[in-house]
Write a structure and sequence with these properties.
By secondary structure, the protein is α/β, with parallel strands linked by helices. Helix content is 42%, strand content 18%. It has one domain: Rossmann fold. It contains eight helices and seven strands, in the order αβαβαβαββααβαβα. The longest helix is centred in the first third of the chain and has 29 residues.
Length: 221
């Protein structure tokens, strides 16, 4: 029974990877850099998108795909904040987005009018790690309020991330966040990953993060 289950899961993931590659090619051909935002609920995914939209206003055209169990609150927020376009995906209980969901969402976006595309995954530090979407960048957001031990408890998401955002730095002293422990744990998993310390409440660190996305975009053919 266990062997059968493993084979079924591998088959599902393999099929997902095929669609993810089609998504990736479509995005690359359109010249769009897609960023898969992964984090636990409340870490600040939507807040980071909104602050980045403000920082990039007039400099980049940004689209958003919002993934949630239900509702469209975040989609309305990012459109109000200045997103070029946004699409809502409600998973109906699924704890992560999958490539076929993104493939469908891309049909509703005019990629020729975008430079960057944020894909806000469902709030979870486990499930999204296994599912490629076609993104060029995997971004993990952690807030200081969640604790400095998350790389130890959830190693895979930190190991596969291309960028790390450490949010809520304005609370770092109040929550006893141990920077040394965090960075040592992260270095053991992903030694060269860039980390951006930000506060979405105060705006600290946001310009540097936004600039890094622009530089990545400019470096693409």
């Amino acid at each position: 029974m266990n062997t059968h289950t493993v084979k079924v899961v591998k088959s599902i993931l393999a099929n997902n990877d095929v669609v993810a590659e089609l998504n990736r090619r479509r995005l690359v051909e359109a010249g769009v850099v897609a960023i898969n935002l992964m984090a636990s609920p409340g870490a600040g995914k939507t807040s980071l998108i909104i602050k980045t939209l403000e920082a990039l206003r007039g400099r980049a055209r940004v689209g958003v795909i919002e993934g949630d169990i239900a509702g469209s609150i975040d989609t309305e927020k990012v459109l109000t904040a200045g997103a070029q376009d946004a699409v809502q995906i409600n998973t109906g209980g699924n704890c992560h987005l999958e490539a076929n969901m993104i493939q469908t969402a891309l049909e509703s976006l005019d990629l020729s009018q975008l430079d960057l595309l944020f894909v806000e995954n469902v709030g979870n530090l486990v499930c999204p790690t296994q599912w490629a979407l076609g993104e060029q960048l995997k971004l993990c957001i952690l807030s200081t309020a969640e604790g400095h031990d998350k790389p130890v408890k959830y190693p895979e998401i930190f190991a596969i991330s291309d960028l790390i955002v450490l949010n809520k730095m304005d609370l770092v002293e109040l929550v006893d966040f141990d920077r040394s422990f965090f960075y040592d744990s992260l270095k053991a998993l992903n030694p060269t990953v860039p980390v951006f310390e930000v506060s979405c409440r105060t705006g600290a660190g946001i310009p540097e993060f936004a600039e890094s996305l622009l530089k990545y975009k400019q470096a693409r053919p």
